[in-house]
Specification:
This protein has two helices and two strands. With 43 residues, the chain is of the alpha+beta class.
């Protein structure tokens, strides 16, 4: 299943697409996307 994980700041937006297995949780998709490595301030 194709999902998109997005994060938006006032002047910069990031959209990451990734393929995950059906049943993947939102938390798992966020972790798999690597968005936390890009924006470590996300909690």
């Amino acid at each position: 299943m194709l999902v998109e994980v997005t994060y938006a700041l006032e002047k910069k937006q990031t959209l990451l697409e990734l393929e995950v297995d059906e049943g993947t949780t939102l938390k798992q998709a966020i972790e798999l996307s690597g968005i936390i490595d890009i924006y470590p301030q996300i909690d």
